[in-house]
Amino acid sequence: MTQRVAVVTGASRGIGHHLADALEGAGYAVERGSTSVAPVTDPDAVEAWIADIVARRGRIDLLVNNAGVIDAEVSLAESDPEQWWRTVEVNVRGPYLMTRFAWPHLVAAGAGRIVNINSGAAYRNDDIATAYNVSKGALARLTAATGLDPDSPVRSFDLAPGVVRTDMTEAMGAHADRTEWTDPADVAELLLALASGRLDAWSGRLVRVGVDTAESLEERARAGLAETDRTLGLIRWGDDDPLT
């Protein structure tokens, strides 16, 4: 069982579908998770799915945590509590569980990698769709927790895909007048670069389609990356800020 194996959640449509196709085209055996909530938020279901993949394929080399949802574009005061929490569960609990149960197999692969599909919403302040924003910020922390340790046997990345035309983005008021969309092929290209290992210096950090290319990221890495570059953290008021 020498063929590389990739697991992609939420791959039946949208960005996940494009990414799964690209990975198959690059020679991966791809296990595609459905978009329903239960498989990624139910520990027993996730553990059983991972065990089944390893039993059939013998290994897991790449995990792409793509499954995600967004809450209504309203303020927190107007939000629906059930929808708010469901958004956090899918977008945070899902990647956590997938990472938790895939981890030993990624370690066993020798050079396992995790790509979390994140968003610029994790890094900017906004007062609508707050569950989505909170969940993507939390996902960035998960990426850092699993990717910043240089001695970790697994590399982990945040990949922000820009705005790909999907059912979710077309339904959002924020993109109602949008005429330019991110090409899914560009997302797939950067994913494949991350999966290949050529961008391992960016482990624990965010890369963004439409701004970054594999070549530009390699060049920046050669110049050196500071501890907090492209990570989520507190912006201090200056060098005299007592918070460090």
Automatic annotation (TrEMBL):
This is SDR family oxidoreductase. One of its GO terms (molecular function) is oxidoreductase activity, acting on the CH-OH group of donors, NAD or NADP as acceptor. The keyword Hydrolase does not apply. Belongs to the short-chain dehydrogenases/reductases (SDR) family. Gene3D superfamilies: NAD(P)-binding Rossmann-like Domain. Keywords: Oxidoreductase. InterPro entries: NAD(P)-bd_dom_sf, Sc_DH/Rdtase_CS, SDR_fam. PANTHER family: CLAVALDEHYDE DEHYDROGENASE, SHORT-CHAIN DEHYDROGENASES/REDUCTASES FAMILY MEMBER. It comes from the Bacteria.
